[in-house]
Design a protein that fits this description.
Number of domains of chain A: 2
Shape of chain A: globular
Distance between the termini of chain B: 53 Å
Largest interface: A-B, 60 and 70 residues
Number of strands of chain B: 2
Structural class of chain B: mainly alpha
Strand content of chain B: under 5%
Oligomer: heterodimer
Number of strands of chain A: 16
Number of domains of chain B: 1
Strand order of the largest sheet of chain B: 1-2
Strand order of the largest sheet of chain A: 8-7-9-10-11-15-16
Strand content of chain A: 15-25%
Radius of gyration of chain A: 22 Å
Helix content of chain B: over 70%
Helix content of chain A: 40-55%
Distance between the termini of chain A: 69 Å
Chain lengths: 418, 293
């Protein structure tokens, strides 16, 4: 072979391999949009409303690690607003439409898509990813775009423009641990393993696990992992070698699945507890699925589909999609849409449906409800968890959406950190 | 510790399959085929989609066939028409193909982590006191058989001899009447088959199944090819093993290696590649550069 070609090829291959292997970093951005005020009837409107159509943004991860969760959350959102639109829309006047984009869990993409979408959307009904939401937060504040981040960090909860749709991750992890302790799945003094994702979600879950561990005399063996890791063998073995009685997961569903596979392979009988973004019921079909069904506990912020309001959502979903959803993220999407609806109705009552008016309406309301789909959410204390209750669930192949509630209704514990 | 050794061997064997495909294509057609990773994902995807219909072994054949046909189509339709283009243009073209194929495949994988239906599932056997997933063991056995078969073909078949001759000196080989087009075609076909086989094990236990993250896993086979030497078949095998072992041990000792930062297992193959290239730019087994005056 020609030496020059070989030499060039090696150099090129090395350069490309390194370039593709390198990870991307986030960037700051500066964007803003001047609101163009316009009077339509008695209601003042601006960006995000064209004629009688309100556009809400759905900026999520449709192809990355949280694809399973985003897709069905969007469907739940769609389901809710379809019903509202049929019944005459927001304050009987405006129908709601969506601008849907996929940032593939890439922060840089999220920032540039946010810039692209903002002039045309009134608020972000869905914005997936903690780091992604944090990256656009400053802009969202200056642009007055209310957003529902599919993420629940303290940082996000400190902003007036954020509707944190869930218990903060630290409390969520604590709640699952308290439930497992109460049920005797883990006992005071046990060693407990934990696998958590790098970034604010995983680290917050880790913080919660540390707090609950300290309170209950548990020894925590924690490992941080990356979204691209696929094999949890080393982390699980590390925990097993220290006689862990449970493994907690503050990471993506693929990691939960891998942990279950490794535990099943090892013939272990170790419980698992996960944060709310760590599972998806499609995991039941994978290797390790049977292990998960028996051993995995987690909290859900939206009702499961076999009970109460969940059953109604299921029926409507089945009519629209011809089958049951894989997860109960549909209920989550439905619940956050119901909260957004309350805010938009209030803004309309106030006579101001501009982005500023929407943020003001959220402040006026303080506490939002979603007709039993989600717990009552209190947004009056910035930086604090909007709720301290959730349903505790286990994965179940027979249940619609693959989840069944195992707690007696909404569960809370007085032991949770302040 | 035997588990780490077997994990390393098994990962190494699978990376070697992928790296071998990369090297064979380069030797036969002087194309750095960065689309090779998407052949792996395509194979896994077809196996995952068809295993309920065809049964696991039928689906494996379908997956391998799909990866092979995809490789062939890329070679015939995209590489062949511009085969005299500079090597850099061809390589960049394959990066484009990789991006397009991966985007589409990941979109199709969509909301699921797709199981491939490996009959051994999460089964494990106890070796020297550690639990080793059966998937790891089957991977080593199959890789040894497949690589052995490949080496026999490479050494003794008319195609193997012709390919080695062509890699030695293209012009002379062409003058001697060797059909370079066919040599290249067969090389791509073999690369596709190797990718299809690797796919089965990269998605088996302890990994839950086919997920979009497979692309990042496959990427680690590229440093394997460079470490061994881009134009060396034994190099691909050794490079694969080095990367597999490095990764397995870096992960196993990650708490001890934490001072180097988190996620060291993922970075290690690239670090080893840089070190090898600095010391031996042609890779461990690559042909040494000679200066002609």
């Amino acid at each position: 072979m020609n030496n020059t070609i070989l030499r060039k090829s090696i150099a090129l291959a090395a350069a490309v391999t390194l370039a593709v292997g390198a990870s991307a970093c986030s960037a700051k951005s500066e964007a803003g949009g001047a609101a163009a005020g316009e009077e339509a009837g008695a209601v003042k409107t601006g960006e995000g409303i064209s004629g009688n159509t309100i556009t809400l943004g759905l900026l999520g991860d449709l192809t990355g690690p949280f694809a399973a969760l985003t897709t069905e959350e969007n469907q739940g959102v769609q389901l809710y607003w379809d019903q509202v639109n049929e019944e005459g829309g927001v304050c009987g006047q405006y129908t709601v439409d969506f601008d849907t984009k996929d940032h593939a869990y890439n922060v840089q993409n999220a920032v540039s898509m946010y810039r692209q979408m903002t002039p045309n959307v009134l608020a972000y009904q869905v914005l997936v990813g903690g780091s992604h939401s944090a990256a656009v937060l400053q802009n969202a504040e200056s642009d007055n775009r209310l957003m529902v981040p599919s993420s629940a960090t303290e940082h996000l909860a400190s902003s007036e423009v954020v509707l944190t749709p869930a218990m903060l991750y630290n409390l969520d992890m604590e709640l699952v641990m308290e439930y497992m302790l109460e049920q005797g799945v883990i006992a005071k003094g046990d060693t407990v393993g934990m696998i958590y994702l790098e970034g604010d979600y995983g680290e917050a879950a880790h913080k919660g696990a540390e707090a609950a561990a300290e309170r209950n005399g548990l020894t925590l063996v924690a490992s941080m992992v990356k979204p691209t890791d696929s094999d949890m063998t080393a982390q699980v073995n590390d925990a097993l070698s220290k006689d862990a009685s449970a493994i907690l997961i503050g990471s993506v569903p693929g990691h939960t699945s891998s942990v279950a596979t490794v535990l099943q392979s090892a013939g272990a009988d170790v419980a698992m507890g996960g944060s709310w973004p760590s599972y998806s019921s499609s995991l039941l079909a994978n290797t390790g699925g049977d292990y998960l069904a028996e051993h995995f506990y987690a909290a859900t912020m939206a009702t499961t589909l076999e009970q109460g309001k969940g059953a109604e959502i299921l029926k409507a979903y089945e009519e629209q999609h011809g089958g049951a959803p894989e997860t109960n993220q549909v209920a989550m999407g439905y619940g956050i849409a119901a909260m957004m609806h309350q805010v938009l109705d209030r803004a309309c009552e106030n006579g101001d449906l501009t982005p500023e008016g929407v943020v003001q309406a959220k402040k006026d309301l303080g506490t939002l409800t979603s007709d039993g789909v989600m717990p009552e959410m209190d947004y009056t204390r910035l930086g604090e968890s909007p709720t301290r209750e959730a349903w505790i669930v286990q994965l179940d192949k027979e249940a619609p959406g693959g989840l069944k509630t195992v707690s007696d209704g909404l569960y809370t514990s007085e032991n949770l950190s302040e | 510790m035997s588990e780490t050794l077997i994990t390393g061997l098994s990962l190494g064997a699978v990376y070697a399959l992928v790296a071998l495909g990369f090297v064979v294509v380069f030797k036969a057609s002087e194309v750095l085929n960065f689309a090779h990773g998407s052949f792996v994902i395509a194979g896994a995807y077809v196996t995952a989609r068809t295993h309920e219909l065809l049964g696991f072994y039928g689906a494996v054949l379908a997956g391998i066939a799909a990866a092979a046909v995809l490789a062939l189509v890329v070679e015939r339709l995209l590489v062949r028409p511009i085969r005299d283009a500079p090597v850099i243009s061809l390589a960049i073209m394959t990066i484009g193909v990789e991006v397009i194929l991966n985007t589409e495949l990941i979109r199709r994988i969509g909301v699921d982590i797709m199981p491939l239906g490996q009959p051994w599932g999460a089964d494990a056997v106890s070796i020297l006191g550690s639990n080793v997933p059966v998937n790891r063991i089957v991977a080593v056995i199959v890789a040894v058989i497949v690589i052995g078969a490949f080496l026999l073909v490479f050494r003794f078949s008319p195609w193997g001899v012709a390919m080695r001759a062509a890699a030695e000196d293209r012009e002379t080989a062409e003058l001697l009447g060797l059909n370079l087009g066919r040599i290249s075609m067969v090389a791509w076909l073999i690369a596709g088959i190797l990718a299809g086989v690797a796919a089965i094990f990269l998605t088996g236990a302890p990994t839950p199944g086919l997920a979009p993250t497979l692309a990042a896993v496959v990427l680690r086979a590229f440093p394997a090819a460079l470490i061994g030497g881009l134009d060396s078949v034994p190099g691909a095998l050794v490079g694969g093993l080095i990367v597999g072992m490095t990764e397995a041990y870096a992960v196993a000792f990650q708490s001890e290696l934490e001072f180097l930062g988190r996620g060291i297992g993922e970075v290690m193959p690239f670090l080893v590649m840089i070190i090898v290239l600095v010391i031996r730019p042609q890779g461990l087994f690559g042909r040494k550069e000679t200066a002609r005056v």
